[in-house]
Design goal:
20% strand; binds flavin mononucleotide; TIM Barrel; 4-stranded antiparallel beta sheet
């Protein structure tokens, strides 16, 4: 091994989210990677940092009516409707029948009441196959006229506080971009005991078929993902990073190493790759190798050295909504 090869191998890409240790700073986004089994034949499983499983609820859900996916320029609209078999079946079958893999497994919990989040988390987190929990708080609260948990800082705080008492495993709270002040929600989640924040979930969107005059999604509205939302996501990470001390898992439209680097520089400790996996399952591996090469070329030894290092100067330091145009 030459000197430069040795240095290359020595680049440290490992990160920690709470007590969760990842060999690589790359998670596969919830709902975009199944449990990882379908992808395992096409990738090097040892190079996948972690897989966030599809969100699970207390009771089974059939999901929304079709169509559930619409391709858009540089992105995808989805309205799956949290289809899942419910926690009982999920634990007995989906989780129990999984092949052991070298990646970390993060269970994702969704719910329609504060109690449901706590109940599902308690049951899921008790399983040894689960290394950490991600809370998908982009769900409507049936007790408050369907207001989305993630859109109300206090409601987010209530969920996180209750869930926090149910597990000592790393708790990642996934924030929604569909808010006016994402930093306020982030602060509540941190105060309530979150170990890390996932930033961001999908952006609300809609598409209409001009032939039929009908919405192109069965659910009428959906969530936009993919490169179209990347600048929104990078800004959200930047704003959240300045508001909290806990680590951030940046996500939204990451397809290349350059995309990933933007998130680290904006303040993300780790990243998550979702929609890109539908295009090419080898994208996460290429990003890992690209990160290694980027750090090595700059004589840097660890990914942590670039986190939050975007040099935004005066323009970045001010809050000036509306002045950009
Ligand atoms: C088809 C699809 C299903 C998704 N399902 C979930 C889900 O069950 N729970 C969740 O928290 N996020 C879900 N997401 C959001 C992704 O995990 C991710 O946060 C978002 O798509 C932004 O990242 P991306 O642009 O890399 O996909 C889903 C996204 C897509 C495209």
């Amino acid at each position: 091994m030459s000197g430069s090869q040795a240095a290359y191998a020595a680049v440290d890409l490992s990160v920690k989210l709470g007590t969760l240790e990842l060999a690589y700073p790359t998670l596969m986004g919830s709902g975009c990677y199944g449990s990882g089994e379908e992808f395992a034949p096409f990738v090097d499983p040892a190079k996948i940092g972690g897989v966030v499983l599809k969100s699970v609820t207390q009771r089974p859900r059939l999901g929304n009516r079709a169509p559930r996916l619409v391709a858009t320029p540089s992105g995808m609209l989805n309205a799956i409707g949290l289809q899942n078999p419910g926690i009982d079946w999920y634990l007995e079958h989906d989780l129990a029948e999984r092949v052991p893999r070298p990646w970390k497994t993060i269970g994702s919990v969704a719910g329609f009441s504060v109690d449901e989040y706590a109940y599902v988390t308690q049951r899921l987190a008790a399983r040894p196959e689960i290394d950490a929990i991600e809370l998908n708080v982009s769900c409507p609260n049936v007790a408050a006229e369907g207001e989305t948990f993630a859109c109300d800082p206090k409601l987010t705080g209530r969920v996180v506080r209750l869930v926090r008492d149910t597990t000592e495993k790393t708790l990642i709270v996934k924030l929604s971009p569909n808010v006016t002040d994402i930093a306020a929600v982030a602060r509540e989640a941190e105060d309530a005991g979150a170990d890390a924040l996932a930033v961001i979930n999908t952006v609300r969107g809609m598409a209409i078929d001009v032939g039929t005059w009908r919405p192109r999604l069965g659910n009428v509205t959906g969530g936009l993902s993919g490169p179209a939302i990347r600048p929104i996501a990078v800004l959200a990470v930047y704003e959240v990073a300045r508001a909290v001390k806990i680590p951030i898992v940046g996500q939204g439209g990451i397809e290349t190493v350059t995309d990933a680097l933007e998130f680290f520089l904006a303040g993300a400790t780790a990243i998550s790759i979702g929609t890109a996996n539908f295009i090419d399952p080898r994208i996460p591996e290429r990003i890992v190798e690209g990160l290694r090469a980027y750090l090595d070329q700059r004589g840097l030894l660890s990914i942590g050295q670039i986190v939050g290092q975007a040099n935004c100067g005066f323009a970045g330091a001010r809050r000036c909504e509306g002045r950009e145009g």
